């Protein structure tokens, strides 16, 4: 923290699938009020890992198949949703896909492996039109939009097929089971008394954004104490079948880009690609000196989050920072806690500008 000038961050360590250490350091806001282990912080894109886990609980219940086209779960064509339906405004403008039949092939696995062909979000397109840039499933390109489509399918899908479910209720059930009392995908007023604001890369204070809409790509608020319980459950496989846990952390889709961003970057020549780098479901999978590992990052202008887990020994480190500058030393801190892991932070952090 001294080296990066970060004002606040929190850390949790998991050993053998159990939370072994949780601590918070520094300040939660510009008033210099202390950051604590029960201070609510922004989860950013670690929300996507929670969504992947939630999806796999539906797979275990027989309500969803990872490789069945999402279109098969809808009562009518995807491109017919949206216009005049204000309750659907939080999802993508799916009518934009009319004329490109490839939307019919997108599956839950493609959403969870960032291979739908969508941009990160539709509103970052130059004309703010949703489009498919490559054949779904053919390559990796980071996309929160793909997660939004999966949320849409679960929430708006046909009840006759077991869907039409409220994602917030699903995640709230998981949080309650794990004792995560201060975590939600939707803003709660009771978070306010002990809430973390943030600092951007210039050290300027930034207020916490109260996210009123449930967005599985990144609306979660949580605490270091709470999220440590989730990461511990994930690494030991609690709450998922053996098959679903294996699906989540297996290399489903090879990644051949030099860095995670910019989107749609060309794949490197095969000889220059990292052969072990792959997308799991809601996580990135890699092999290192201690064997198979998986991780996920979350980032915005004032937030820096990351967790890294090693299958061997079921060991993890979780980092939540309300000052984005802390991110510059995450790799060193992970190495200090876990030893050499081989986590591809050079791929994760290079060429990213406010992405999450």
The percentage of residues in β strands lies in: 15-25%
Please estimate the helix content: 10-25%
What is the CATH T-level topology of the largest domain? Answer: Beta-lactamase
How is the main sheet built?
8 strands, antiparallel
**Strand arrangement, largest sheet?**
2-1-12-11-10-9-8-7
Write the H/E string, N to C.
Answer: EEEHHHHEEEHHEEEEEEHH
Number of helices: 8
The overall number of domains is 2
Strand tally is 12
Average pLDDT taken over every residue? 96
CATH superfamily of the largest domain: DD-peptidase/beta-lactamase superfamily
Broad CATH class of the largest domain: Alpha Beta
Category by helix and strand content:
alpha+beta
CA radius of gyration: 19 Å
CATH architecture of the largest domain: 3-Layer(aba) Sandwich
Shape call: globular
The first-to-last residue Cα distance is 22 Å
- Could you name the ranges where pLDDT drops below 50 across 5 or more consecutive residues? 352-356
Notable features of this structure?
single chain, 356 residues, alpha+beta, Beta-lactamase, 2 domains, 8-stranded antiparallel beta sheet, two-stranded antiparallel sheet, 22% helix, disordered C terminus
Question: What does this molecule look like?
Answer:
- It is globular, with a radius of gyration of 19 Å.
- It has 356 residues and is an alpha+beta fold.
- The protein folds into two domains: 1-39 and 169-356, Beta-lactamase; 64-164, no CATH class.
- The chain has helices at 46-60, 108-112, 144-156, 167-178, 224-236, 242-249, 330-338, 345-349; strands spanning 8-15, 18-26, 41-42, 198-199, 205-206, 221-222, 253-254, 278-279, 284-288, 291-300, 303-310, 315-321.
- The model is unreliable at 352-356 (pLDDT under 50).
């Amino acid at each position: 923290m001294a080296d990066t000038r970060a004002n606040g961050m929190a850390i949790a360590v998991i050993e053998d699938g159990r939370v072994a250490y949780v601590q918070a350091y520094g300040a939660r806001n510009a008033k210099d009020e202390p950051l604590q282990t029960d201070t609510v912080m922004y989860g950013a894109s670690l929300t996507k890992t929670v969504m992947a886990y939630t999806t796999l609980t539906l797979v275990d219940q027989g309500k969803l198949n990872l490789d069945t086209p999402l279109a098969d779960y809808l009562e009518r064509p995807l491109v017919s949703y949206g216009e005049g339906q204000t309750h659907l405004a939080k999802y993508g403008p799916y009518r934009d896909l009319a004329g490109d039949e490839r939307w019919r092939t997108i599956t839950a696995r493609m959403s969870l492996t960032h291979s739908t062909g969508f941009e990160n979000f539709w509103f970052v397109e130059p004309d703010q039109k949703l489009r498919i840039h490559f054949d779904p499933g053919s390559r990796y390109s980071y996309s929160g939009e793909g997660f939004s489509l999966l949320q849409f399918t679960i929430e708006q899908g046909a009840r006759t097929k077991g869907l039409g479910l409220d994602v917030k209720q699903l995640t709230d059930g998981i949080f309650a089971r794990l004792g995560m009392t201060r975590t939600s995908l939707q803003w709660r007023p009771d978070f306010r008394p002990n809430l973390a604001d943030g600092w951007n890369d210039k050290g300027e204070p930034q207020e916490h954004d109260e996210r009123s809409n449930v967005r599985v790509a990144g609306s979660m608020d949580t605490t270091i104490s709470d999220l440590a319980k989730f990461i511990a459950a994930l690494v030991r496989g609690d709450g998922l079948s053996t098959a679903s846990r294996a699906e989540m952390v297996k290399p489903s889709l090879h990644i051949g880009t030099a860095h995670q961003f910019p989107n749609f970057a060309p794949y490197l020549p095969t000889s220059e690609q990292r052969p072990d780098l792959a997308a799991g479901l809601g996580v990135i999978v890699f092999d290192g000196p201690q064997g198979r590992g998986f991780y996920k990052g979350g980032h915005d202008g004032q937030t820096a989050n990351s967790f890294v887990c090693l299958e061997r020994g079921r060991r993890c480190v979780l980092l939540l920072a309300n000052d984005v500058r802390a991110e510059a030393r995450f790799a060193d801190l992970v190495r200090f806690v876990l030893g050499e892991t081989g986590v591809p932070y050079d791929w994760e952090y290079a060429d990213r500008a406010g992405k999450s």
